Amino acid sequence: MPELPEVEAARRAAHNVAAGRRISGVWVADDPIVFEGVAPGRVRRALVGRRVKAVRRHGKHLWLELDRRPWPCLHFGMTGGIHVPAGRAVRLVSDGRVSRADWPPRFTKLHLRFADGGELALADGRRLGRIRLRHDPAAEPPISALGFDAWRALPSPARFHVMLRARNAPIKAVLLDQSFAAGIGNWIADEVLYQAGIAPKRRASTLSPAETRRLRARVRSVIGGAVRAGSDGDRFPRWWLFHRRWGHRRGGPPATTVRGEHIRHETVGGRTTAWVPSTQR
DNA sequence: CTCAGTGTTCAGTG
DNA sequence: TCACTGAACACTGA
């Protein structure tokens, strides 16, 4: 479920376990898809014995700064996530909870043990996630091709408006474009547009200064709120579209917001989009 | 059994 | 060349 808040939660979890510690053991899956452009064994050799100096994030990308390069870069795709064991129970950072017997979790691709006994695993069932090795992650693709971090590096309102004026695609598609803003995914884009009262199909270049200001403020508040909630959807404000967007099931009652507004589903920017025609223009 | 999904990439189009 | 669109990728769970 990884959009920016999820990846930030993973970054913090990884930081707590790994920062300042030495990697004492590494297990890698034999998976030539998730390990992209590098043999799993080479990742293992690059990590074992190294000390972790910091865990960095840009958009949905995560990487470990080690005391020697190259460094491992992680992307979670649709279903990947960082997992850490917590005490006797095992807490799943990204997807809920598993029992102690499930450690390391199913679909683990990379499993790190630290000298002080801590552990960390990256698991990904659908295999759309990626593990790469880079000498300078922020300066090399794919991270160098990302736009501003949607949470920590929002441009000024004026600059934001100028950037959107240059884009003709539907605003939803622009928000999803990682080379524009890094970290926004499908549910955040829908949530932000819902809260800003802007229809997802509106061409970005047609948004007024007032609309781009509203949009920018919601990007900040939605992501900030989700990060503050530890990316735990149950703790998001009750009135958010988030809780209702998938409330409909085939044959079930039509989805509505907590205020009773009808939620419509259609494809915009290549993704299923939930929006409220009565309030989004 | 079928289908959609909290993502990204790449070929094809205008 | 650029911006944009839609299919492909891989696999699970509803």
Word description of this protein:
There is one protein chain. The chain is of the alpha+beta class and 281 residues long. It has 2 domains: 142 residues, MutM-like, N-terminal (N-terminal domain of MutM-like DNA repair proteins); 128 residues, Helicase, Ruva Protein, domain 3 (Orthogonal Bundle). 25% of the residues lie in helices and 25% in strands. The protein is built from 6 helices and 14 strands. The strands form 4 sheets. Strands 1-8-9-5-6-7 form a 6-stranded antiparallel beta sheet. It has a 4-stranded antiparallel beta sheet with strand order 2-3-4-10. Strands 11-12 form a two-stranded parallel ribbon. The chain is globular, with a radius of gyration of 20 Å. The mean pLDDT is 92. The structure holds a DNA duplex (14 and 14 nucleotides).
